[in-house]
């Protein structure tokens, strides 16, 4: 799942405010814009991030203009894919405030594919927290290769109970053969580790040592 | 006065002559040396060690033999081994190489290797020398010397183990081992040694293949083939198994 990251450009969160000189207040709502400049047909399977005191998150998606509209692009609406997903059970309290989240395909209202832009809307209604955001946001493609993992090697799955029953006809002492072989292996490795690494200082050219053939380079 | 002196001198003289006698032949130093060697090498059989040591004292002329005896005083796994190798190197440094030139050159190094490997089959020694030999006139540094000597000592152990393995495989005590079995065993060993040291997964796999389970499957496969390839003597078996060891020896050239 995590091995197919989607390349996108994530902008800084923008705090939504109501521009009013008299009634300036902290709206508690931020938007993160995500675009896909280099990807031709972006499709999102999973969204992973680390929370930092965000209470709710919503994801809205803008689809590419449908070609059957002809020359006119028509109205491109933002569609809500994930509606107000609760990250913190209680916005005033600590729980869930610094958790890791992964929003998978199952939680999307529809399949996110062929989109032009995505907006992640963060909401934190509680006035208790000075700052809220999400960190380490990563988008992944959907993975069709949810096939079985490669089979485990024999030495991991071999049942030790079966091994004691191994008795070959004609070979009475498998254990001693095995231990001798392992000792031989150990000796060879020990020797290999202690090989000298120094240069012996040979000045041979093509296998012969001839003073006249020595070169400066 | 004279009377008094006489018994005194008669008593003194034997004591002094004893000490003088011992000092004349530097027996004191000799005994100190032997005791020091026994303590640092801690042989399993001190009496044999002592007798071998005194035997070897007669080989004072041949520096190579002297060096070999020192190297073989203790097992290569003990820390004292390195000190012994250093001592052996120092002894061999006194070898005259040329006019007013003393040191360890290729000839004495090769001689030492050959004498250390005297109990092994000749083909094994030849192959080993091909890998670690040095030209006659080359100067041998301590590092190269130590590495070569260590390889020989480990090979000595290896060959002894080969014999044990041969005896385990030779169930009917016929003096010959089925070539099929020998091939299977050799193959498993080579596969284990072919892996690089740093790949942890390969190491565990190699360990499994050499353990009773992996070996069981390999031997079963081999025995099922039912081909008759004849038997192998101990020497042939040793030569083949040593190939795996020699493949790990780093070539000096």
From TrEMBL, chain A:
PANTHER family (UniProt xref): NICOLIN 1, NICOLIN-1
InterPro entries xref list: Nicolin-1
Protein name (database record): Nicolin-1
Origin superkingdom: Eukaryota
Lineage: Eukaryota, Metazoa, Spiralia, Lophotrochozoa, Mollusca
Gene Ontology cellular-component annotations: nucleoplasm
UniProtKB/TrEMBL annotation, chain B:
SUPFAM superfamilies from the UniProt entry: Dimerization-anchoring domain of cAMP-dependent PK regulatory subunit
Domain of life: Eukaryota
Xref: InterPro entries: DD_TPGS1 (IPR047502), TPGS1 (IPR039235), TPGS1_C (IPR057632)
Protein name in UniProt: Tubulin polyglutamylase complex subunit 1-like C-terminal domain-containing protein
Native organism: Magallana gigas
Domain Tubulin polyglutamylase complex subunit 1-like C-terminal: 59-250
GO terms for MF: microtubule binding
Pfam families (UniProt xref): TPGS1_C (PF24480)
